[in-house]
Amino acid sequence: MTTASPSVFLLMVNGQVESAQFPEYDDLYCKYCFVYGQDWAPTAGLEEGISQITSKSQDVRQALVWNFPIDVTFKSTNPYGWPQIVLSVYGPDVFGNDVVRGYGAVHVPFSPGRHKRTIPMFVPESTSKLQKFTSWFMGRRPEYTDPKVVAQGEGREDENTEAEIPRSTWVCLCPSPAWLMLPFCPQ
């Protein structure tokens, strides 16, 4: 009697962080990382990356265009802990310090094909007026030491955040050419 080895499947993520709209900010850059369960493992590509700094377009939309490519492959034995992409957007404040302008997360689509996702962004907020003034004066707004916490629900119940208006602050993920999930069974 032979023992069957557990079958695995591959999830290929191929796309880009296309653009964002932050009406009140300019000269922003974007970082991405993936959060996934313990049964998942990256097999190819980059799990995290950082884009170039971009300026607003001169047209009516005033979009920040990155066209930042994402290409990574994961393998797993079950769908629990399906990967999420976490985006962090940074830019200069009035003193020239890099500060967070938004965090957001979305699950990688579950079905194969072309998908476009719009991600509402938010920023953590100081809990008191003194902390707000101190963070403004020191040029250090509240931010996460590990942005992956954005994709985790545990421990964030009492968190104070300032939600940006999703219609005006968003990041667009576009596939190129597709998000794919391929079954794979080793022999």
Automatic annotation (TrEMBL):
PROSITE patterns membership: C2_B9
Stated family: Belongs to the B9D family.
Keywords linked to the UniProt accession: Cell projection, Cilium biogenesis/degradation, Cytoplasm, Cytoskeleton, Signal
Gene name for this UniProt entry: B9D1
Cellular component terms per the entry's GO annotation: MKS complex
GO biological process: cilium assembly
Origin superkingdom: Eukaryota
Organism: Callithrix jacchus (White-tufted-ear marmoset)
Subunit composition and interactions: Part of the tectonic-like complex (also named B9 complex).
Pfam families with a match to the protein in the record: B9-C2
Endpoints of the signal sequence: 1-19
Cellular compartment(s): Cytoplasm, Cytoskeleton, Cilium basal body
Function: Component of the tectonic-like complex, a complex localized at the transition zone of primary cilia and acting as a barrier that prevents diffusion of transmembrane proteins between the cilia and plasma membranes. Required for ciliogenesis and sonic hedgehog/SHH signaling.
Protein name: B9 domain-containing protein 1
Xref: InterPro entries: C2_B9-type_dom
